[in-house]
Structure formats: C-alpha cells, structure tokens
From TrEMBL:
NCBIfam families membership: PBP4 (TIGR00666)
EC number annotated for this UniProt entry: 3.4.16.4
Organism (species): Paraconexibacter antarcticus
UniProt lineage: Bacteria, Bacillati, Actinomycetota, Thermoleophilia, Solirubrobacterales
Single GO MF annotation: serine-type D-Ala-D-Ala carboxypeptidase activity
Positions of transmembrane segments: none
Protein name: D-alanyl-D-alanine carboxypeptidase/D-alanyl-D-alanine-endopeptidase
Amino acid sequence: MLPPSRRTPRRVAGVLAVAFAVLGPAGGLPGLGAGPADARSRTELRAKLTKESRKLAPHSGSYVVDLTSGRELFARRADRRLSPASNEKLFTTSTALLRFGADGTFSTGARIGSGVAVDDKGVLRGDLYLVGGGDPSLNDVALKALAQQIVDRTGLRRITGGIVGDESIFDARRGSFDSGFGPDDDLGGQLGGLTWGHGRATPGGPATVAAARLQFFLAQLKVNVTKAARTGLLTSAPGGPGATLGTAVSPPMATLAAITNQPSDNFYAETLLKDLGAREGTAGTTAAGTAVVRSTLADEGVAPAPTIVDGSGLSRTDRTTPRQIVTLLRAMQRSPVAKVFGASLAVPGRVGTLAGRMRGTAADGRCQAKTGTLHRVSALSGYCRTVTNHLVAFSFLENDMDARSAKAVEDRMVPAIVSYRP
C-alpha cells in the first residue's frame, strides 16, 4: 500500500548491508534458470506495450531500446517532460560514480590547530576538531574506531577544550529544493557536511551531534573532555589548521550508490549531490551539485538537459523524459562503472524497492531498475536481460494518475520486455 505522503516515504537510515546483483558480461543475472518458455517478437512486444500504455494517463511516457542491437523497441510520448520522482537518483548516483569512481570515498578527520599537540602526559591543550567530509554514512562503528585510532596514535588522556564539529565543506541548509532548503522529514534527517546517524540533529545542528558522539566514545576510552561539544571552524583555531590525529573513511562509492538507489534514500541522494558540488563544482551546495550533474549528463549525450533542482526527486520541478533516461542508461552501460551502477539498482522479486514486485514473473531476478513514487506520480527505469540474452533499457514515467494503478501497469510491461525475442 502506498504511503499517504505526497512524496516518497522516509527510508530506513544507514543501511550498509546491500545485496548486489550484477549484470554478467555474457549472460543474465546470476542464479537464474533458463527463463520463461513464452517469447514475443518485436511486433508482439510493441503490441503488448501499446495495449498496456493506453491504460496510463495522458501525462505519461515510455521508451524501450535493445542495447545489444541498438534497435528501438517501443516509444510512446518518449520526449514528454515529466516529473521523474526518485528516478532523479539515477542522475545523481551515475554522476557520483563517474566523477568519484566506484572506489571513491569520503573522509572525516580528527584534527587540531597548528602548534597544538598531545603532550607526553596525554593532554591536548585546546580543542579537537571533527572535520566533516560529506560522508552520509558516518555512524557509531566509524566514530568508535576513530576514537580508538586517536588514542592509539597519541596516548590521549585529556582535552582541555572540547570536540568541535566542522561542517564547512557544505552550506548550512538542512533540506533540499522542495522544502525551501529547510528541515524536511522526507529526508529522514538534516543535511550537513558533518552528520551522524542519518542526519540526526539538535538545536545545535547535526555537526554538534556528531562531535558529541565522538566525545562519548572517547569517554569510553577514559579520555576526559572538559567542554561540551559544539560547532565551529578549524580555520578559526589558533594558528589555523594543524595535524590530523585520525581519519574515518566511508564505504566506497559503489556501496553508497547502492544504499541510495536500492531503498531509495533521499538523505544519501541529497548529500551526494552536495558532495559533487563541493569536490567537482564551485561549492558544497545543492545548486553547485546540480550544475555538476547537468554537465556530466551533457558529456554522456543526454541532451537537451533535464530540469534538475535536487538529487532525490522530491521536487516536482524536476523534469525529464523517458528518452533522456534511456540515453543515460545506455551511456552508463558503456562506462567503466557499468557493473556497479547496475548493481546499485533494485531487482524485481529480490532486492530493494522492487523486492515485493513482479515475484514469479519473467522479470523476477532478470531486471535491475529504479522506482519512483510521489502523490499521483510513478516511475520505473532500468535494464532487463531478455530470454535471448539481449540487454534492454527502458523508462516508464507516469504523472497525474494514481501511482498504485500506474505500478500495476509497469509490473506487466517489464515482464513483457524480458520475453522479447529478436
């Protein structure tokens, strides 16, 4: 049953255990049988998709291409600009993988000011700065390990100052475009350059919460911290930035993309967008991140440019076409990160937001796709491996109709694609 929200539902925070399904270079998804006995010719597939697409609202569009042969299989309003809902995350995660690489990571550093040091008695006379690197996944496991790393390296026993959270890699806006950049429940937490526990925040902001959490783990190691955790800037430390006492490194981008796409995590998507702005653009802002995404899509042949105002698809101002999404899917399949991009997507009957859909159909385990849901908006785009081992890319976008009804049609169209036989 669809949630009563007008936007995508809040997702479970910090999911790091991801089941990957990778498109094999010479076959279907791993663990599959021989495939369905029935098969459809191109003419029969077009007839089936035409029949089903007529049940969709006028504000809908479909596009299906056989990537193996390069042949267009079906198009209906393929150039209509529509709200993609969470299919927007395809733009964000593909850009992050292309720009940062599958092995790219984000680092959170424990640093001190210049001229400050831990003395031979284990005393740090000053503040310890926890400097955020835009890691959306920072959690207790990482901070506990960071605290142990600091103590092991320095013999730290007491801090005369406090733990200061530095989130300056990003701006201080806590939400995305759709909420006017204010706090937004649909993100499941507040955005920031230094966040812990999926953006948990107090009136002091998420960086203060992260700093307090590091202080907690230092206390467990018998390190006394004199002052309460707070937010501040390392550049304001006496003498400016100094040594790094420890570093917490995020999971690789391949994992972060999967955490974003499979459960459709809005917080991760918006954080990755700001990461793109901070590292590949002009600033750690939503606007700078969207500029990087648009530039990357243009490089990959997606033109004209979609309208992109956020990383998650929460805003209805986002607009794209089925053809633009399939163009991206084709480009990603040819890229060095093709496998990890495919593996980041949900799998019908198996993984993510599609785990409960299309079970027992021809699409079960044979496709990888991204869902999208807003009030009266549904979307589904991705790849299918057909019964003859052709790789097909598809995009179905539906606006101004009941999302549940639209998904029922999607769940008949996708299995039909799998049964395509050239």
